[in-house]
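Reopening this ticket.

The earlier resolution said the output was attached, but the attachment link was broken on my side. Pasting everything inline this time so it's all in one place.
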Amino acid sequence: MISDRILALTLRLGAGWVMWLLILLSILSVAVMVERAMYFGSRRMSKLFPRLLELCLSGDLKGAAALATTDSMESEVIRAAANVAGGGTPAVEKAVQSTIDRRRLEYERWLFVLGTLGNNAPFIGLFGTVLGSSAPSRIWPRTRAVRAPPPRR
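Inline output:
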């Protein structure tokens, strides 16, 4: 039966493989964190943002677009808004929202891995604990019982 085979496999392997799985998943999560830190670090909000905001609030989108030369999200949003400014407020709102939605996918890339690991790692660890603590109870009935010596008087 398959349950007997799985039991035999877990008794033979023990619970050590769960620890290796957790170590590998930890390495994966650190790799994702480093990649995301590098991504966000290269796309930091520019120091010109207060000036860009001031120009946008005054209605000078073309002037703001001329200053917005970085790869940051706010620069791309300003450039998209300036390109469609002639179409009126609805066109600007649509361009801004579509740019933000598109860039959000880039900003959230690989974050699902961290969420999934963060939610499931405790259960994987618990599984290893259960395997590690249930293996001796499966082996004990097969060993010969040893009687304690009688107490001395």
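Reporter confirms the inline version is readable. The chain has a mean pLDDT of 85. Residues 2-140 form one domain.
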